[in-house]
Amino acid sequence: MPSPNTPPTLEEFRVRAAQTGLTLTSEDIEHLHKGYVGLLSLMERIPSGWAWAAEPPLVFRADK
Amino acid sequence: MTDLTLLGIAEAGRLMARGEITSTQLTEAFLKRIEAVDHKIASYITVSADVARAAARQADTEMKGGVRRGPMHGIPIALKDIYETAGIKTTGHSHFKKDYVPAIDAETVRRLKDAGAVILGKLGTHEFANGAMTPDQPFPAVRNPWNTKYQPGGSSSGSGAAIAAQLCMGAMGSDTGGSIRNPAGFCATAGIKPTYGLVSRCGVFPLSFSMDTAGPMAWTTEDCALMLDVLAGYDPNDQGSAKTDKVDYGAAAHRPIKGMRIALARHWYEGEDSVTPEMKKGIDEAVRVLKDLGAIVEDVVFPSLRDYHIAGRVIITTEAHAVHRQDVIDSPEKFGYTTLRRFQLGAFISAEQYLSALRFRRQLTLDTRAAMRGYDLIMAANQWGDPEIFEEPQAVFHFMGKPQLPMPFNITGQPVTTINCGFSSAGLPLAFQLAGRAFDEASAIAVGAAYERATPWRAKRPSL
User: Number of CB pairs < 8 Å for A and B?
Assistant: First the structure.
């Protein structure tokens, strides 16, 4: 199974685009593909393998 | 008589309390100047002159009768056009809302009105506080009053531009990834992004509900503090609102700063990515001034700026998509091109990617707190250099450029002020940030105000 950070090909991205519920032209998808691949490369900085079972309550409080 | 539009909130309040000027005189001076110069920078979308005049008359009547509501009584201010205002259009700078007239005020607007503030009108922004200043918007893009060939920064663009151009005494902005601090820095005003949860967002158009903050902008840090005195406080209608003790922020602006410890995050702006030499010089000089005032400033290493940047971008992109998803599906043609693309992109982020970014945010918050141990404040550059040129289109996927200097404090939720520290050789503003611990706006206000009193920058204004 590919890593979640492996960039999708344009064809793979088209398949995903069809599942988003958005109305997108070929041009839209090509542009969004570039943006997504750029975002994905930056996301390599985000650690993977979190201990999900230990996830704290999803309420963001600056003082907690 | 002095040009009334040059007065600060604190000074104007003192003059009104002594009966030396009236709110009506002050309000008329601003309305006259808006009429004369705002066409050069397009900071206002709506000028609510009649509403302002009525509020000013009421303030004068009350003050004449000995009723003094506080430092904002009779003070003319304006609002970023994502704050709902009863009976006044609230457009979000978008075709979607261009004729929308809310029935009730945002909680912050209600508080400002209760304190006697006079609402001059509504100010330009990036579409729904996220898009860019593009020609496909229903209202003109705001220009920078220091040089109209440049952008004012965003998304609280009109707020920064109007304050600097003496078109209001203070304004409300909002900050999700730097939207108060960008225009404050590029327009040479002060601005406070409060701690997440300190100021209500009820009635403010959302962008990213776990990152959005509402906050004041004004010419000086002390004036921002006086606005914050009115704005801060629990609101049961905002799910992120915190119950906190009352703080006198106006008084904090006059606290001594001797012995205060400041952690300088120099590696954020002089490392992998660097500020311009003039910005570096301006911040080095600001450090010297703060040391002369008795503060202790030391270099401290924090997590990488790029870590905060990507965590913030994933969270904002995902949440903004969720907020605007139905309109993106139903009426994509109504969005500006850049706004639409940014809102569409969130549809491709998986649940795991979003949750990992939330976990990373928590980790970065803990790591930042640990690195800050023993210090009262964090200091860093506010912007990389000069603002973007007006005619150059902004990048659609702006996250692929340099990381954003304001983002660390959106990630951690800490309070942060923007302080002007001079001007480049091109006459464009330089600025730094001061961030306090959660709910310690007072320390950042104390140091920012002390710096402003010790330096000449607040005496310089743009000429329009």
Answer: 104
